[in-house]
Structures are given as structure tokens and as C-alpha cells.
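About this split. The held-out portion is used to measure sequence recovery: a designer receives only the C-alpha cells and must propose an amino acid at every position. Recovery is the fraction of positions where the proposal matches the reference. Here is one held-out target exactly as it appears in the evaluation file.
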């Protein structure tokens, strides 16, 4: 048994996430956690909302709410959707928590003691009309690169270039609209990442061979370009305050840490939030401190977050000079696109997780997204592909098999699993096939190859169909009732096996399949290949029920309605 720490990139607080966010971070982390738990490992899966920064302040302003209130509500709204998706976090925290404030301040003090933080005077946009500095998105204006006139102080949405507020032409305040802006000098804390370049390089060199190519290539690119010193404070109300014991002057001016500094630290902060709920039994430090040899840490994210996790956060952890756990494996994803275009929160393009659950239960989405995860390349969501996959894999291959076997057996042999004779040659062949596919499935899960794992699972389901077609119990029963009973008992054992091994992808359906059998102590979590081969976990005489249809078949009208509601090709 190993101890596995798992985190997925923190969803930003300003709105409900889309299916791209789901498949690029939280869902695969959940699938992997569920798999490891089933295999008997000690797993801690931590996530949280990322709550600081200007977008949160601006979103709160738009809704006329104090930012703390806005974040509290938005956190609960996101959590409700994740519950709907059956994401089994051990804890879903908040980066604005007291715990994260404490740990972030501790990190900053240590970095300062070790010579990695410096106060520097910089020139920033100040608005006399608003009585404040205007960082990031608080300034809007014309992009100096492409001329787009609604560029924001942190980035131009049109040409995607990263900007500084002072770069903008004809700048105006995003709060008051005032154009009477000045550039004033003010002091901020800088993290001297350039001093950590060599250490980070050495650390990455020790790990990159284990990482997927997508993660190591992005880390390499950033290191080659060189680590720059970065401002880690902002003039905002909402954020982790700069500690007054170390920087009295900056604290008095109300400076807070910039969101990219405190967000990854929240992985630790949320673990402490989790432990503080039951301090007698939970030890947050055992997961994070001096845990290099006892914990395996896997992070999930899409490619835009890779630099933060492979280079910048490790630089922070290294600079603290304390034995904080660093990531072992970075599972990075490409983009899920919507008909080849960008899923966009700001433009409301694509399918959002709350809408998805409105339409169909979580298992439909979980299976589809994992089977089509953007692993080796971007992958495109289309309603055509979604409905075809649901119909073929979930409704026909799995759902129909379960229903057909159980209803037929009930009709001909009553409400208990029939006995039949000894397994024969067909059952032996099936057993070998199942053992082989199960081993393949396990191998792909261990390797975090989600598409391939889903393909192996689908092949396991298909093997049941092939067996049923071959034995054709509906014909067999006319000449050999014992033989038909054996076939059905074997098929019912397949259903039970499917319930156990499909759980990481489709937990609710798995529960329904398992619940079909009244087994007194059914705690089977995973079966070894040998045990799977025997297909004997459900003995003859076990009472069973026929569950309601597991997956509804989607019709052409459904497809047309989805495309009508969400827009298809033209987006
Ligand atoms: N289309 C996508 N496909 C896969 N992963 C994505 C996609 N869009 C965002 N992600 C990932 O989702 C996670 C949570 O993202 P976050 O809440 O910060 O939103 P974001 O990156 O601002 O995306 P968006 O602006 O599209 O909402 C991150 O790991 C991010 O990389
Ligand atoms: Zn531009």
C-alpha cells in the first residue's frame, strides 16, 4: 500500500466551469483517486476554489456583492456541481481560508530570510478619481500590439499577448472609467526566481523523464527562456495580506500577495483545512512535510497551468528551504475544444458543467470525457460524437447487456441466480480474455493513460456481449436448460465484475449494477486476474433484481435539441 497525494488545478472562483475545465483537471484526478482507493491505497484527494485576484473583485462588483460574500456563494455553487459530478474529494477548500493565509505568509517570511524576496519600487497606474492604484484588469485601454481597444491591463483578449497596465494606450479605469490616470512609484515585493534558476533546473532534470512529454517540454521551454523575478504583491483589498511583522510599511499600505503566489500554496492550505476539521485523526503535515519517501504526489492540470506547477511553485518550495513535498508526477492535458473552437467562460461558448447535469446524469459525461480526454492532442467535443458514444458504448454495449441478462434470467429462472452445470470451454476462454483485458485496464490506469484505460474497460464490456452472442442462451434454453443457466450465471458474474471495475469512471451506474445482487457481505473492491477469471463471485441462489434502464438511448431529436440549445458547428 502506498500513500497517494492527489491535487487538481484549482478552479477559479468567478463562475461555473465548463466541460474543458472538468476533463482537464478534476475529473481525471477523481477517476485516478477512485481507482487507487479501490486497489487499497491510502489516498488523499485535495482541491479548492482559487479565490483571490482582480477577476474575483470585478465579478463581485458586477453582482453588487462584497467580494467575500461573492466568493462564499460562488464556492458553494461550484461545490454543488462537483457533488453532482460525483467528484470524491477528501476536501474541497478555499484559497481565502485562514489556513492558506498562515502558510502563505510563512512561505513569504522564509523566502525573505533566505534572500529570495526583495522590495523594489515600480511604476504603476494610479487613479486619483478612484483613490487607488489600478493593477491588472483594473485598467483597460488599447493594445499596443494589435490596436484592440478593450485590452485589459494583464492581457489582450484579441491577440492574447500578456501586458502590463502601463503598456496600454489611452488607459482608463475599469472601476470609474476615469481617464485621468497617472503613473506613480510604489513598492512591491519581488520573488527572485532568477536566483533559483539552477536549482529548479536540477530538480526538473531529476524528474522530467518520468513526466509525460507535454509536461516536461513546457517546463524545459520555460527554463530555457529563463526564470524572471516577479512581483508577488498587489494593491488590492482581497488577498493574503503581506505580514506586518516582516514588512510593516507594505502591510500598512494594504498590500496583498498576488494570486499566483498563494494559489498553489492552497494545496497545502486545503490539506490543513481538512485536518483542522478532525485534528485527532488527521495529520496534514504527514502528507506535506518530510514526506518525500512516504508519499507519491500526482498533480492534474491542463497545459496552461504547467509552468506554474513544474517551475514556479517548485521554485517557491525550493526557496523556502524546508522539506515541503514537491510533485512527483505532473499529468498534463491539452485542450478540449467545442467543435474545434475554444470553450470560453467569458463568451459562454460550449457546455457548462451545471447545464450538463441538467441534461443527463454525471456518468454519461464522466465516461465520454474520460474516453476522449485530450491527452496526446486537443480533442473536440461535438454533440454528434457525444450522442453516438453514449448510444454505442453505454446504452448498447454495457446497459443493454446488463438488462438483457437480468431480465431474461428472471423470466426463465426466477429471481435468483440460476446454477447450471460446470463451466466449459467457452467460459474458460472468456475467463482468459477477461483476465487479459483487466490486466490491460490496470496497466493503463497505473500509467494514467485515461483514453486507453477507457478503451480497455469498453473491451471488457464487449467481451461480455461476444460471449452472450456465442452462447445465445435464448436459443440454448430450448435444448439445454442447464447450459442456458450456466451462461446466465456467468454473465451475471460479469455484471458484478463490471460493477467493481467500472466504478472509477461511472460510480452511480456501478452502484446500481452491484446493488442488483443481494450479496450479504459484498465488499469486493477489486479482483485479481485469477479471481476474475473464475467469474464466481456471485454464487447460484443469490437473489437479484433487474435495475431500471442504466443508460437511455439518445435520439435524433435529442441531438437536434442539444445543437439548437448550445449551437453546433458555427458556435
Ligand atoms: N478547454 C480546456 N480543456 C482542458 N482543460 C482546460 C480547458 N480550459 C481550462 N482548462 C483547465 O481547467 C483548469 C481550471 O481552470 P480555471 O478555473 O483557471 O479556468 P481557466 O483556465 O481560466 O479557463 P477558462 O478561461 O476557459 O474558464 C485548469 O487546469 C485549466 O488549465
Ligand atoms: Zn492585442
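Reference sequence for scoring:
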Amino acid at each position: 500500500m502506498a500513500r497517494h497525494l492527489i491535487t487538481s488545478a484549482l478552479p477559479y472562483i468567478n463562475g461555473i466551469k465548463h466541460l474543458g475545465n472538468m476533463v482537464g483537471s478534476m475529473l481525471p484526478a477523481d477517476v485516478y483517486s477512485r481507482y487507487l482507493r479501490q486497489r487499497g491505497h491510502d489516498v488523499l484527494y485535495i482541491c479548492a476554489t482559487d479565490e483571490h485576484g482582480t477577476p474575483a473583485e470585478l465579478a463581485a462588483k458586477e453582482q453588487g456583492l462584497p467580494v467575500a460574500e461573492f466568493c462564499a456563494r460562488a464556492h458553494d455553487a461550484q461545490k454543488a456541481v462537483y457533488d453532482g459530478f460525483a467528484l470524491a474529494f477528501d476536501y474541497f477548500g478555499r484559497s481565502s481560508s485562514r489556513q492558506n493565509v498562515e502558510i502563505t505568509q510563512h512561505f513569504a517570511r522564509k523566502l525573505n530570510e533566505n534572500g529570495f524576496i526583495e522590495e523594489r519600487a515600480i511604476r504603476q497606474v494610479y487613479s486619483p478619481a478612484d483613490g487607488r492604484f489600478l493593477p491588472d484588469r483594473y485598467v483597460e485601454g488599447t493594445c499596443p500590439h494589435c490596436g484592440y481597444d478593450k485590452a485589459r491591463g494583464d492581457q489582450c483578449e484579441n491577440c492574447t499577448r500578456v501586458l502590463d497596465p502601463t503598456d496600454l494606450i489611452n488607459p482608463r479605469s475599469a472601476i470609474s472609467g476615469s481617464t485621468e490616470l497617472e503613473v506613480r512609484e510604489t513598492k512591491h515585493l519581488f520573488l527572485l526566481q532568477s536566483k533559483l534558476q539552477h536549482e529548479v533546473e536540477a530538480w526538473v532534470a531529476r524528474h522530467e523523464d518520468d513526466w509525460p512529454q507535454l509536461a516536461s517540454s513546457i517546463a524545459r521551454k520555460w527554463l530555457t527562456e529563463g526564470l524572471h523575478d516577479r512581483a508577488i504583491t498587489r494593491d488590492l483589498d482581497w488577498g493574503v495580506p503581506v505580514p506586518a511583522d516582516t514588512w510593516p510599511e507594505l502591510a500598512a499600505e494594504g498590500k496583498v500577495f498576488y494570486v499566483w503566489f498563494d494559489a498553489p500554496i492552497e494545496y497545502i492550505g486545503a490539506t490543513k483545512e481538512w485536518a483542522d476539521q478532525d485534528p485527532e485523526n488527521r495529520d496534514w503535515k504527514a502528507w506535506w512535510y518530510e514526506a518525500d519517501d512516504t508519499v507519491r504526489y500526482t498533480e492534474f492540470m491542463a497545459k496552461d497551468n504547467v509552468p506554474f506547477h513544474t517551475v514556479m511553485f517548485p521554485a517557491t518550495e525550493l526557496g523556502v528551504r524546508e522539506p515541503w513535498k514537491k510533485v512527483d508526477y505532473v499529468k498534463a492535458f491539452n485542450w478540449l475544444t467545442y467543435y474545434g473552437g475554444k470553450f470560453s467562460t467569458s463568451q459562454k461558448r460550449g457546455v457548462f458543467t451545471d447545464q450538463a447535469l441538467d441534461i443527463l446524469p454525471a456518468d454519461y459525461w464522466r465516461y465520454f470525457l474520460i474516453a476522449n480526454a485530450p491527452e496526446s492532442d486537443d480533442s473536440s467535443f461535438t454533440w454528434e460524437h457525444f450522442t453516438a458514444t453514449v448510444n454505442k458504448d453505454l446504452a448498447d454495449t454495457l446497459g443493454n447487456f446488463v438488462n438483457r441478462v437480468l431480465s431474461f434470467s428472471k423470466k426463465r429462472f426466477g429471481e435468483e441466480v440460476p446454477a447450471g452445470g460446470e463451466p466449459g470451454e467457452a467460459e474458460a476462454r472468456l475467463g482468459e480474455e477477461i483476465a487479459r483485458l483487466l490486466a490491460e485496464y490496470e496497466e493503463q490506469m497505473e500509467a494514467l493513460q485515461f483514453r486507453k484505460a477507457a478503451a480497455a474497460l469498453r473491451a471488457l464490456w464487449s467481451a461480455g456481449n461476444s460471449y452472450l452472442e456465442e452462447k445465445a442462451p435464448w436459443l440454448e434454453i430450448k435444448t439445454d436448460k442447464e447450459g442456458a443457466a450456466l451462461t446466465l450465471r456467468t454473465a451475471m458474474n460479469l455484471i458484478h465484475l463490471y460493477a467493481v471495475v467500472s466504478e472509477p469512471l461511472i460510480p452511480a451506474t456501478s452502484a446500481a449494477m452491484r446493488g442488483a445482487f443481494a450479496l450479504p457481505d459484498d465488499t469486493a473492491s477489486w479482483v485479481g486476474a485469477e479471481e476474475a477469471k473464475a467469474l464466481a463471485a456471485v454464487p447460484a441462489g443469490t437473489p437479484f433484481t433487474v435495475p431500471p434502464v442504466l443508460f437511455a438511448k439518445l435520439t435524433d431529436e435529442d441531438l437536434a435539441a442539444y445543437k439548437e440549445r448550445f449551437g453546433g458547428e458555427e458556435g
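Annotator remark: The CA atoms of residues 383 and 560 lie 9 Å apart.
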